[in-house]
Amino acid sequence: MNFIHAYSRNIFNGLLVPLKSVVGNRSLFSILVKRDIVNRTSGTVLGKLWPVVQPTLQILGYWFLFDIVFSMRASRGPNYLEYLLTGMMPWICVSEILNRSTNMFREFSSLYRRNPFPLEILPLLIMAIPCMVYGVVYFILNLFLGGLDKAFISLLVMPMLMLWLLPLCLLLPVLGLFIKDFTQAIPFLLMITMFLTPILYFPSMLPEGMQQIIWINPFSDLMVVIHGLVQGGDYSWFNIVRPFVIWLFLLGPSWLVFKRSIPHIREVL
Q1: pLDDT tens digits for 112-156?
Q2: For residue 185, what is the enclosing H or E element?
Q3: Residue 59 CA to chain centroid, in angstroms?
Q4: 116: left (phi over 0), alpha (psi -120 to 50) or beta
Q5: Number of domains in the chain
Q6: Contact 83, 158 (CB under 8 A)
């Protein structure tokens, strides 16, 4: 019972402490968000438009490659391009967040190396801007592909991903700080995960013996739910329950690792 109580408390704290820290330090959080945007866009001609222009150009690139060059719409059906784009945009957002999270403590070390600083806001900070930027582009994309109803439904996708990624954004910065090889490995791991997730292909396009293998990957469930919400595809309660169980399983230990690493972060840096 003590174990269950402690585990439940860590799950509760892993969710609420970062949120309370952001609310309690909302002025600081707002300044850091603006600072991050300025760092991304300073010295450029398009300025603050770049965060929106960049994912838009990525989407146009995928459209040109798969629709014009490979003619996938003609060979795989008229819904293939919509399927690809509505899955690829959330995945690009996920990849950016997880890649950045591994280097989070080093990136923001100037803020807390010599001064008191609420480190709990950093995981939400690295998720906030990608989710806002990609959320806007995703809304416009689905407005173009499916109309206003689908566009409004698509607004649920980025907050859902942000919540589900919270345990990983607590754990990966610690791994990236203490195990430097992990920072080098994460882009490769994300690439392999993308290939094992039904984004570039329908699950039915796989050989029959491999169709069950991709469901080992929990991101497959997330993509099925995303396609179900935005495109009206089929998904089951299993596709919702399994990611939620994994989220519960990871959040408590991830928060515990994050919290216990805080006193040692400055020493490592």
Answers
A1: 777 788 889 999 999 988 888 888 889 988 998 888 888 999 999
A2: helix 180-195
A3: 17
A4: beta
A5: 1
A6: no
